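Notes to self after the Tuesday call (sharing in case useful).
The group wants a holo model before anyone commits to mutagenesis around the pocket. I volunteered. Ligand is F0G. Logging inputs and output together so the record is complete.
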Amino acid sequence: MSTTADQSSGVIARYRNFLPINENTPIISLGEGNTPLIYSSRLSERVGNGCEVFIKNEGVNPTGSFKDRGMTVAVSKAIERGARALICASTGNTSASAAAYAARAGIPCAVILPAGKIASGKLLQAFAHGAKIVAIDGNFDDALRIVRELGERDFAIVNSINPDRIAGQKTAAFEIVDLLGGAPDFHLLPVGNAGNITAYWAGYREYQKREKLKTLPVMIGFQAAGAAPIFHNRIIEKPETVASAIRIGNPASWKQARGAIEESHGAIDIVTDEEILEAQLWLARNEGLFVEPASAASIAGLFKWSDKIPERRRVVCTVTGHGLKDPEPFRDKIDSVQPVEAKIDNILRTIGF
Ligand code: F0G
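Result:
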């Protein structure tokens, strides 16, 4: 099933020796990973104190989010084990990624989603790739509970409770270390179901064991203020935030995330919806990077933490998904565009500069 092209790019091709792949694993890849690590002079300036800030832009993965790194491994392993169908619960990105990799593998995929809570671009992706979409009257946490039950039947679960997903997602940490020649001092990222913070930490730890880095980063995770179970140390029954990707009240990898934070002497903090949207716009306007609201939580977090970062530290912020997935925060702006008469004078007046 796999071809030479599948084996020459993608995270399995680059990091095969660090992944649970053997000669019988068919490689299902869309050329994920190898995403840019962008030095940001403006963010570095905002933090000040001689700090250097880099943005790991995961929105340029094949389906527009970091999920593809884990999905290539999870789907390849599922096919190796003879799975006949994939299933996942999702706030949107996992379902988009699962649907695409299922299409590539040639097997059906069912996605269980909280009704009315998925950003339109992500739902569109799941439709386009031919997934069976089931919207439930409940939130992500309810959807994941159902998926766990269905996983005991004939479905291969491709949520991050599947260790193959975490294994694939570790590769983002490898790429950062390979490029910087060591780990950053601080790593900031959004936290929802807490798989990604778990995966990054596992990646850094594995590279430390293999003597590819000397020091480990301090991991700082950011939850949305209205969906912050780890921060408050209690399940949130009705999580609410504009950042729909991280609208999660009972994260599956809660314990592992706590472990990563404690072992790295890091922290979990919250950012408000207002701070998230402000950071999203700031990044789009000052760096040319358009990310979805959940992704901007790491940038909002950096703004909140800039005074707490000691001087001359290297900081990486992961932005997790592409802004095109979720047009909603810009709906008013899109709707407010009015046509003007196609005459130079009118047009110059409208431009205004
Ligand atoms: N950012 C984006 C864009 C996401 O889609 C997610 C999670 C996260 C951050 C948080 O990552 O869950 O590993 O802590 N999205 C999942 C989904 C839950 O179903 O697409 P996490």
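Two things stood out.
Residues 32 and 61 are 5 Å apart (CA to CA).
The pocket of F0G is lined by residues 65, 67, 90-94, 160, 190-196, 245-246, 292, 294-295, 320-321 (CB under 6 Å).
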